[in-house]
Amino acid sequence: MRLLIFLLFLSVFLLALPQLGDTAAVVPDVGYGAEEGTIAVFLTPDLATRRKEVYLGEKLWLVVQIRTAYSPCPFSVEITDLETGEVVLRKSATLNVCGGQMLGGRYQTFIFHDFRIVEPVVEGRRFKIVVRAGNEWGAYTFTERHSPPGRITGLTFFEGAKVATVLRRDGRYRLEVKVRNNGELEARYNLTLLVDGKRFASQRISVRPKLESTAVFDVRLEGLRGRVNFTVVLSGVIVNDVQSAFYDVVSPYPDFSLVYPSSVEGKVGERLRVGVRLRNEGPTCRQPAVSIKAEPAADVEASYGRSDVGYGGFLDLDLSIRPLSAGRGRLSISVTCINYTSTVYVNYTALAKLSLSAVDQTGGSPPARLFLDGKEVAGEVWLAGGSHVVDAPPEVRVGDARWVFEKWSDGVTSSTRRIDLTGNLEVKALYRLQYYVYFKTPWRTVEGWFDRGAEVEVPSADVEQEDWRYRFKGWSGSGCPASGRFTVLGPARCEAVYVKEYRVVVKLFNNTETYWVEEGATFRREVWAESKGGMRLVPTGAENCEWTPAQDRIVLSASGPAQCVVSWRREYSVRIESGLGERPLFWEGWLPEGSVIRYMEGGSLLPTKDGLAVATVEELGVRHKPAGWRCNGAEAPREVVVNAPLRCAGLWRKGVQVVVEVYLDGSFKERREFWVAQGDILKLSPSMFMPQAGLLTQVKFAGWEGAYGTSSDDILLSPETPTTVRANFYTDYMPLYAVVGAAAVAIALGIFFYVKRKGDHTRIWAKQPTETKEEIEIEPMEITKTKKEEERN
Which residue has the higher pLDDT, 248 or 521? Predict the structure, then answer.
């Protein structure tokens, strides 16, 4: 709503009336009754008239006339917006004396000299002023306006003194405009004449309230033809009224004007069909002939009727237009009527297609915003040729991806460039897609922007520090590669993950192995015998690290950095063949270097700490006695030192067993064995087998059994097969018998003498000095003799 203003006088008066005697004037009754209520309230510029409209910029008096006396009396003024019901101003005070008839019929009348309205003003808004004094009240309604309202009441063309209804081109006319002031105050208005919407002339006019005034415009119709719109605008502070009138402006000779279209728009390379209507603004055009020229260039074909066209008649053209070049110009349509040519112009625009796009090296579409003459465009735009500025951002970033401008498809390298467009054109902004790559290790960092598809050597190598190594295990993060070489296909933010390892060096016989073991884990390595050809190396222990034996290998172990030096024993493959068909193989295996293969009598074929002992082969009385070796194709002594792979076969000497069985008096006494090498002769003598003789006996050789062809006691044998010879011995008792006989004679003589002496016999016991301790009973000779005779008989 608009704010109504009582100036400072009103506020001061309402608050302190007794001190402002010049503000409250005692005047005769002005003769106006109350509009509402009993208190006369009104607005006036001079007390002579009342005003129902208040205009912006003017100052009025607010008059309040009180006829009833009050002492003291409450007094208030209130102004209300009748459209909204809002109270826009309220003032109150207590007066010492209020109203009452004075001398000469005068009454107490208050005049507030400065009442006005200020912006913003709502044209035609109504307000009510309500005044209260004591028990009485009065009201007055007014309307706020910018200025006194005016109206155009007439538009008339005059040619001389006559009213003109049809206007001639290039003629001079007088246009009279009548204006009425419907307000309560004289007003000055502005009149503006527009011809077909263009400002032609203007002037100011003063009009008294509730009256009319006339303004005159001199009009010369130069360059006008056809139906013309004449418009007059009446304005004060605001536009009060607008009136228009249409007049036909005719030519003295055939002259065509454009009815439609006002403009034609086509696209380069595309055929356009358009209908054009022309209106004859002059006399009849006979046998019209039409020619058309296009600027910018275009192929134009026209078809039309050849009949005469009278005043106000139409000439319709059917045009087929194919623009050749882009630009803005016009179609010049010339109509020739026998000896006069009229030209009509149609605004003509030929559009060319400009295709703008952005593409990266992968064929993708970067999120780049392209600008044409400062305005963002996307895809295709049709432009009326000319010079245009195209701008592409030098760089576009989206997170860890960016597109960097390289050049335009036509080779221009500046991201901002100018294009002179005459025909259809496609231009692409070429970008290079790059990704931000970040690889971090404790020792090195690789980061930056890299082209998509580029290969980046990332720092994924292991790092060694003395006997410790940090082994690269992989990457943690996003977009990380699995291997050391990285092909950029997207953003990557990665940190290296390492495993700490200690080094264990194992020095073998002819090479060195290095192992890296994760910290906290135990290193274990089995070292086996190594074979190559007929030689093998057998691990026997290790230095500088722990080891344990395990059958034919050793197991190394360590829990930290270590240098394990393995000790070895060299062994050779040894194969011993008997050299005998019935026993082809003695032994095959591995023997340490320096071992000795030797023959030992007895025992068996087994390896010992000193080497391999080989026994004599004996079976069924035939024995093969080792005589040496043939190793690796050469003869060798009985003891062979192992210092290379050996393939040995035994060299044997065949021996035949000769068994001598000794018998004494037909009883077996002993067995003696002799081995006779093939080709050798065994000499056997009885003395070699003579049994031990007993007391007072003799052992004598009786002969050989099983040995043929010999007649002497000594025999010579050269057997081919096992042979058994029997040596027979017997016991010769003759010495014993002699002794026994002598003893018997002695005994007999003794007995004889004893008998002689005693007369009876005596029994004698004697022990035989033999190992059997047999008891011998000696009987008297006579009895013995008698018994022997009996036995003979």
Answer: 521
Nearest Cα to Cα of residue 458 among 421, 494, 426: 494
The DSSP bridge partners found for residue 62 are 43, 112
Phi, psi of 229 (to 5 degrees): -100, 120
Q: What is the mean pLDDT of residues 658-666?
A: 88
Q: Give yes or no for a contact between 732 and 701, defined as CB atoms under 8 angstroms apart.
A: no
* CA separation for the pair 722, 676 (Å, rounded): 9
C-alpha span between 414 and 670 (Å, rounded):
130
Q: In the prediction, which pLDDT does 743 show? A: 84
Q: What is the distance between the alpha carbons of residues 35 and 280, in angstroms, rounded to a whole number? A: 65
E strand or H helix at 782:
helix 781-792
Specify the amino acid at residue 383.
L
Percent pLDDT > 70 in the chain is 85
- Residue 436 identity: Y
> Hunting for tokens 């002594």 — which residue is that?
637
Asked whether residue 175 carries a pLDDT value surpassing 70, the answer given is yes
Q: Which residue has the tokens 């010769």?
A: 732
What is the rounded distance in angstroms from the CA atom of residue 215 to the CA atom of residue 150? Answer: 14
Report the sign of the C-alpha dihedral through residues 695, 696, 701, 702, in that order.
negative
Written as six digits, the tokens of 779 are 């009987």
Q: Give the pTM.
A: 0.42
Q: Check residue 780 and give its pLDDT.
A: 44
Cα 194 to Cα 219: distance, rounded to the nearest angstrom: 11
For residue 646, give both structure tokens.
């050996």
Rounded distance, CA 303 to CA 275, Å? Answer: 10
> According to the model, what pLDDT value does residue 785 have?
46
Whether the Cβ atoms of residue 127 and residue 88 lie closer than 8 Å to each other: yes
DSSP state of 97: S
